[in-house]
Amino acid sequence: MPEVTSQQPAIDGWFATDSTTDGAARPHLIGSKCPVCGTYVFPPRENNCPNPGCASDTLESVALSTRGKLWSYTENRYPPPPPYPAADPFEPFAIAAVELADEGIIVLGKVVGGTLAADLKVGMEMELTTMPLFTDDDGVQRIVHAWKVA
């Protein structure tokens, strides 16, 4: 594995990290909101409100809640097939569907390492964080949004 030279989001525009007054990094998801009907969407997009009862073709970029309740979860026990990167050796990981506190939409994401399905329970509070997904051949560590038990 190459030496890590920098960190970059795995997908640009899905989350941002702000610094708090104490210098800690606090990530938040970036979503979209329809200014006409108030519908939220993640991942973000610029047009076509997903509400079938709304004809708006404009969505605004908004910061989404950083906390929510665990709506559902599963555990991935098999490495992804090529060309997708997988840790070697592969370790199982949990995937969480979290209903955001303010928006009511459900966002999927990996759960931080060390937390498996046996550690999770529907309804528990979850908090947004980030984690490395893989390091590419150029030494860039690709970061994704993730969930941790609050």
UniProtKB/TrEMBL annotation:
Any Pfam family matching the protein: OB_ChsH2_C
Gene3D superfamilies assigned to the protein according to its UniProt record, in alphabetical order = 6.10.30.10
Name the UniProt record assigns to this protein: Benzoylsuccinyl-CoA thiolase
Q: Which InterPro entries match?
A: ChsH2_C, ChsH2_Znr, NA-bd_OB-fold, Thioester_dehydratase-like
ChsH2 rubredoxin-like zinc ribbon domain location is 22-60
Please state every residue range assigned to the domain named ChsH2 C-terminal OB-fold: 62-129
**Record organism:** Mycobacterium paraseoulense
